[in-house]
Write a structure and sequence with these properties.
Length: about 600
């Protein structure tokens, strides 16, 4: 939920930390702060609001010097966004400063205990207990004090700590929150994710739960939960800084929308050999399963709704899709004959991780579909398929979603082949259609200027509806979420056939209804629903297949997308809706890449 970073070396830490925080800002942006260790004191700067406010403060503070420091950009969970609640937090004796991503569930208990010893707390945060407890535990050995401290913590954390008495040393620890160490020459780093480090180093080490890192300019040492030194492997990052920058686009979201053909290609091509889907990562006996559960949050759940349709259709096995925040508390009926597919772009979503653990405890096998390599979900799953979408920075997912859908489709075709529920002809036809998706996605992107015109026509609707049936309904869910999360307009997705059971009461003259009409098996039915809303004065923007002429007499405006297999429709149909959300938000002056109240990676419940 928050972004943390740290640096120790021979350069001034301030500018490096601020650069890292700018890249991490998508993880949270209601306040930010940095602390540096200089001589034998800790200096701190904090600002409410975006990292740019902190940069202004930094530029106005020329004596903010020091070559070892930590930084944080916050998405508030405990306490309002304010300078006081912003990280880093300092111990009462001023000797230690900490940044933290995660939640300390037993903070109230620890806080009460420390208050009894006369320790005064300044903030409302859960994080402050970490640094106060650390200072309390400190008897001259920095690492021992941290190990003793984290042994008391319940919940999740990725933390970085500096000490006034230990120049050049940063200690970092993780439990259920991402943390990566960057290896340089004479300088080393840590961060919540690679984007913060990639301009400085491409050599990283992923920390695992329970581990502590002792970072100095010369070396990084790792310890397990018992304090034993351990060896860790360096991973070389293959993508470069341009992947983490806007490359001339005004927003990351637009860049990521435009990157979809390449992202789809990268996800598909390595997995197709001689017209067969090859999933080397899966050594699964599909015949062992009698049902599949798909679980995820937000857009990843919407991808799961599409996946449910594709897998059921091709594999003829019952499939359920459910949001992880519900599944985790529902005591679901499942056993060793259940395959659970968890989907997550970040691989760090707390509800998804909890649902996955719940399913595992019931004996289910877990297959994860994840974008971020080495993320918690990727590590926890029995099997993992990566969507090779590259880094996704905009809070609203786009290429993350389409690559999830295509990977689910590839899994479905592969599984149907294993289970012998698909004919050879249908198998080859699906593989060919999957292979053509990048080119069709590019053609859907060619609608860019037409979608912009539509957004300029309809941007001032205060409330709108997305309707569709079957696959079109699954896309409606995602199209509606995309619009509301970045433009703050009220929007609802409805199964077109359900409108008449209540929601149609909200249709009034001028209301915009976006009608999704690519699932041609049910096109006549959707057209009837279009007629029903038109009869009540709604304006209709339809998304339909190229060549569908009938729709032009029914809808006010039409966006025509390339024809594809009915099961693959969502990959193409969502593209104009992503662009529509983008241009409506732009026209309404919204902060597209960092919509209010949201964060990219939701690591809290
Ligand atoms: C999508 O645009 C979202 N901001 C959000 O719904 C997201 O899909 C959800 O939080 C799940 O994230 P994950 O894929 O990283 O698990």
């Amino acid at each position: 939920m928050c972004g943390i970073t740290g640096y120790t070396g021979f350069n001034q830490a301030g500018p490096i930390l601020l650069e890292g925080l700018k890249r991490l800002e998508y993880r949270g942006y209601d306040s930010a702060g940095i602390a540096v260790q200089d001589e034998s004191e800790i200096k701190m700067l904090k600002a409410t609001g975006k990292v740019s406010h902190l940069v202004e403060k930094f530029e106005a503070t020329p004596d903010f010097t020091g070559v070892c420091g930590i930084g944080h950009t916050r998405w508030a969970t405990h306490g309002i966004p304010s300078d006081t609640n912003a990280h880093p937090h300092l111990s009462a004796d001023g000797k230690f400063a900490v940044v933290h991503n995660g939640i300390i569930e037993n903070f109230a208990e620890i806080r009460a205990e420390l208050q009894k010893y006369g320790i005064e707390f300044k903030s409302e945060t859960d994080t402050e207990v970490i640094v106060q407890l650390l200072a309390y535990n400190y008897k001259g050995n920095f690492k021992m004090a941290l190990m003793k401290t984290i042994a008391r913590l319940e919940g999740s954390y990725a933390i970085g700590v500096i000490s006034a008495d230990h120049p050049g040393t940063i200690l970092a620890a993780r439990l259920s929150s991402p943390l990566i160490i960057g290896i340089g020459i004479g300088e080393n780093y840590f961060a919540s994710d690679i984007t913060a480090l990639v301009s400085n180093t491409k050599n990283v080490i992923d920390m695992d739960d329970g581990e502590v890192a002792e970072i100095t300019p010369e070396e990084v040492k790792f310890y397990d939960h018992a304090g034993r030194e351990i060896n860790k492997e360096i991973r070389h990052i293959t993508w470069d800084i341009a992947s983490a920058e806007k490359s001339g686009y005004e927003h990351f979201m637009l860049k990521e929308i435009m990157e979809q053909p390449q992202a789809l290609k990268a996800t598909i091509e390595p997995r197709v050999k001689d017209e067969s889907i090859v999933l080397d990562e899966l050594n699964l006996d599909m015949k062992k399963f009698n049902r599949i559960h798909i679980t995820a949050c937000g857009s990843a759940y919407h991808a799961g709704c599409v996946g449910r349709g594709i897998i059921e259709s091709l594999c003829r096995i019952p499939v359920e899709a459910e949001v992880a925040s519900e599944l985790r508390y529902r005591d679901p009926i499942m056993d060793e004959k259940t395959l659970v597919i968890v989907i997550s772009q970040s691989g760090e979503t707390a509800d998804t991780i909890a649902a996955m653990k719940e399913c595992r405890s019931k004996g289910a096998t877990i297959l994860a579909i994840v974008n971020v390599v080495g993320s918690s979900i990727a590590k926890l799953a029995d099997y993992c398929l990566y969507t090779w979408a590259g880094p996704e920075i905009a809070v609203a997912t786009t290429k993350g979603y389409t690559t999830q859908v295509v990977l689910l489709a590839m899994f479905a075709v592969w599984a149907a082949g294993e289970m012998k529920t698909i004919s050879q002809g249908a198998y080859i036809s699906m593989v060919k259609d999957i292979m053509r998706l990048p080119e069709r996605a590019q053609r859907a992107l060619d609608l860019n200027s037409r979608v912009k015109t539509m957004a300029e026509k309809y941007f001032d609707n205060s409330s709108l509806f997305f309707i569709g049936r079957n696959m079109d309904y699954a896309v409606a869910l995602e199209g509606s979420l995309k619009l509301k999360e970045i433009s703050y307009l009220h929007s609802e997705a409805y199964a077109a056939g359900e409108l008449k059971h209540g929601t149609i009461a909200l249709i009034e003259p001028g209301r915009l209804v976006v009608a999704l009409c690519c699932y041609e098996k049910l096109l006549d039915k959707t057209i009837s629903n279009i007629q029903q809303v038109k009869a009540r004065g709604a304006r209709v923007l339809a998304v339909a297949h190229e060549g569908n002429r009938a729709i032009f007499t029914e809808a006010d405006d039409v966006l025509s997308v390339p024809v594809t297999d009915p099961l693959l429709v969502p990959v193409i149909e969502i593209i104009p809706l992503q662009l529509f959300a983008y241009y409506v938000a732009k026209k309404n002056g919204c902060d597209i890449d960092k919509p209010k109240n949201l964060a990219k990676s939701v690591t809290v419940e």
